[in-house]
Amino acid sequence: MSLYHEAAKVLDGSKSGKTSIKSLVYTKKDWKSDPKALFALSTEAAKWSEVLSEVIERSGVLRIERQLTPTLALILTHDLFLSKRGIALPATHGLNSSISKHKARLSAELTKARLRRGFATLDAFRAFINNGSVTVGDVSDQPRPKLRPRWVRINTLKTTLDEQLASTFAAYQKVTSLDKVMLSPASNKVYCVDEHIPNLVAIPSSTDITTSKAYRTGQLILQDKASCFPAYLLSPKAGEGDVMDACAAPGNKTTHVAAVLGESMKSEAVGDSSSKVFACEKDVARSETLEKMVELAGASDVVTIKAKQDFTKLPPTARAFANITALLLDPSCSGSGIVGRDESSSITVHLPSKTADFDTPTSRGKKRKRAAPTSAPNHASTTTTIDDVAEEQAPLDATEETADKLAARLANLSAFQLRLLQHAMAFPAARRVAYSTCSIHAEENEHVVVAALRSSIAQEQGWRVMKRTEQVEGMRTWNLRGKVDAVQAAARMEIVDGETVDAVINETEVAEACIRCDKNGEDGTMGFFVVGFVRDEDGNTIRKSNGGLQQPEVDDSDDEGEAWEGFDE
Ligand SMILES: C[S@@+](CC[C@H](N)C(=O)[O-])C[C@H]1O[C@@H](n2cnc3c(N)ncnc32)[C@H](O)[C@@H]1O
Question: Is residue 378 domain-resident?
């Protein structure tokens, strides 16, 4: 059947170490299989390849089924145990039966492989593999790998940290370092209160809290630590004005900023209606999700949803927005920081050896060997190269085309992100903007920051970066900052349009102001970027730039939905 043979071809192709699975699948046009299904199967089989190679070798199947290649055996064993639908071939098909008839033996080896690694259930093992860590070893004699934690935000609109520690997490043991959570065996119930973001807790990734009442009722929200940075960096104070979340769905940052405002209301003892949050979302389906999320989080009283609304069409000078002093801008981006995205580019593919010698029916009586370590010579082990992050290192092959496409896509995205950022800067009473992406690319991050600082709207209205020294404590003490070379490169870029003016950029200060999070790094976060913009002067000036753009003086709040064509028109 083509799917299995074609997936085997992809995995064999990725052994050269030059081309990623993604590249192999998407640069060839004449696959018989659906490319999405082919990509999914190849990636999943590659993720499990170290474990399944061990299982296949120990079962001795390849020495019995001589017609099976190691790659086909790997892929079929994957589907036999790990795909919901099983092997997608009739039971009588030769390929299916060559693996299925050894099901009992393979299953026993899979169980042993799981238990050797300390996982009580297949689900916990799956969570471990999906977490991106494929380098596993016997718990008895090898250090445990660090696993990204599960981040749980305590929704202070509905509960408190203390309440949750005494209820949902009552059976958990408190640990004081994130490492202890990341190194914790799957069965351990531990938590660590985060040192940077208030009301955030880390638990082991294999711990499922989605069945808890607190989660189901919106008291707990699963939100990556990095994704909590923007609302915390913005830290709006109740009574100081309203907040606009420009690109809001599904609403994690909206509900977080509402909670931050709520906390400030408690501490400042200001009236309930003193500040509100507008949440704008362009997409129809995502607007519905946003509405549900806001309601579930108990934020409906504070949040006014602008559903199906393009942010760039909202007139900043509308009366309804006259009191907006802070904006969150988390626009669509490449998503390259999301764990699981593009992971095919860095997966090490392991293949079982046909001649591995374990205690199998055909090698009975021989001395039993331990599982081969990751780098054992009887594993055909290679790491495929990443085709987007390390473009400059990519060898001259099919990835070149992908790199060109990526560059074009990033150029489009950054132009869009800059346009939204300039629009955010146009709100007359705005004093703070938090700009963020879940991208690891400088084009969407430092480059956008520099371009925004050089834009005439920023120059005319006095926008600058929020310096590191001005940031809230948890953000000030976060060590990973923006890339100076990326800021320098952007500052040297030619000014291409009349909307941009020459401006002096303090490169070190800008890079220090920017905050980055590493994908799969020691901090257990996704790849992320956030920066704050502030302005001190009175910003009620209406922009009349040399490009002839003027904002209409809209003073009727009902006009919000009307098309204000924005800066690009
Ligand atoms: C990265 S997601 C936002 C995630 C959200 N901030 C959160 O934390 O849950 C970007 C969102 O912006 C929306 N979007 C894109 N362009 C927009 C525009 N011009 N106006 C409003 N929303 C837009 C997308 O539909 C998408 O839902």
Answer: no
DSSP character for 373?
A: P
User: 247 with 105, same domain?
Assistant: no
The whole-angstrom separation of Cα 219 and Cα 154 is: 6
Q: Residue 202: which domain range?
A: 150-228
Measured by CA distance, the residue closest to atom 12 of ligand 1 is 247
**If you measure from the C-alpha of residue 246 to the centroid of ligand 1, how many angstroms do you get, rounded to a whole number?**
7
Strand-strand pairing, 515-517 and 432-437:
unpaired
Question: 342 exposed, middle or buried (CB, 10 Å; 0-12, 13-18, 19+)?
Answer: buried
pLDDT digits 0-9 by tens, 256-272:
999 999 999 887 666 55
- Is residue 438 annotated as part of the catalytic site, yes or no? yes
385-423 pLDDT per residue, tens: 222 222 222 333 344 446 788 889 999 999 999 999 999
Q: pTM value?
A: 0.70
Q: Are residues 327 and 466 in the same domain?
A: yes
| Residue in 192, 438, 514, 517 annotated catalytic | 438
In angstroms, what is the span from residue 530 Cα to ligand 1's centroid?
15
Q: Tell me whether strands 515-517 and 528-534 are parallel, antiparallel or unpaired.
A: antiparallel
Which atom of ligand 1 approaches the CA of 227 most closely? 8
